[in-house]
Amino acid sequence: MEERLLTQPANVLPVRTDDLSKHFVRELRTALGAGEAASVTRLVMEDVFGHRQGNRPRMLTPDEELLAWITLNRLHGGEPVQYVTGIADFYGLQLKVTPAVLIPRPETEELVEWILEDHPGGTNRRAVDLGTGSGCIPLALQDRRPEWQCEGVDVSQEALAVARENGKMLCSTVVFHEADVLQDCHLDEGAYDVIVSNPPYIPPSEREQMGESVLVHEPELALFVPEDDPLVFYRRVGEIGLSALSPGGYVYVETNEFNSNEVMRTFRELGYQLVERRKDLQGKWRMVRTRLEA
């Protein structure tokens, strides 16, 4: 997005919520398009100013006028709206997000949906998310399957702080652990029914295909893998699964749309017999599931 910072103080902005909403749409329309500008504006008005469409208009406080000016500056600078509001919606939950964690994506919701399809309510499962970031996956799983024992693992202390805050906010019993999946991730042997991961999978050579807002604002640690070993995390997740899964346990991973076949081959080379992939709603191969034979 073209950086276009406002230089005037907040009093140049409308001071009623309904007028402010219209102003945000006008200001963002050129860079985002009409539909996206309206969507971003709706999130800002709801999550920052507590104003929903159809609510009676009200006057902004002086602090809110300044906040409106700052918010519009940040959006003009290309910052993702979820970081601006500090909130991301995921599978019916509202989660805190900061630049220490990736913004949860719709395709990750589809991965959660696949897991829930395979394990209906009333089942007793122990599940762990490797590279949990905001904690969105285990928190969503436990929200829909409160009888499950869910965990999340991440190497980043900053990410874990966000995940734990989300867990506290949701009154969840998900447990979060600090560990490096590639180095010192030691899980109880044969104890898990589900291992899930949305690991880093983007080689540096694909940088130019990514949006500027992702490159500038989202954490590189959660995005990129070595150019010479782009499947390193999948191989490691598979290795962990061989010892940590119970007989008949599942591994679910999100993939790069270009490498799902290679991910499947990696699991087969590790000895997994039942390996399959699934397209997301955009028709891209973005998910792989494998099962450890009983």
Automatic annotation (TrEMBL):
Gene3D superfamilies membership: DNA helicase RuvA subunit, C-terminal domain (1.10.8.10), Vaccinia Virus protein VP39 (3.40.50.150)
E.C. number(s) listed in UniProt: 2.1.1.297
Reaction equation(s) it catalyzes: L-glutaminyl-[peptide chain release factor] + S-adenosyl-L-methionine = N(5)-methyl-L-glutaminyl-[peptide chain release factor] + S-adenosyl-L-homocysteine + H(+)
Keyword annotations of the record: Methyltransferase, S-adenosyl-L-methionine, Transferase
InterPro entries cross-referenced by the UniProt entry: DNA_methylase_N6_adenine_CS, HemK-like, N5-glutamine_MTase, RF_methyltr_PrmC, SAM-dependent_MTases_sf, Small_mtfrase_dom
SUPFAM superfamilies with a match to the protein in the record: S-adenosyl-L-methionine-dependent methyltransferases (SSF53335)
GO molecular function: nucleic acid binding; peptide chain release factor N(5)-glutamine methyltransferase activity
Origin: domain of life: Bacteria
CDD domains xref list: AdoMet_MTases
GO BP, sorted A to Z: methylation
Protein name: peptide chain release factor N(5)-glutamine methyltransferase
Naturally occurring in which organism (per UniProt): Neolewinella xylanilytica
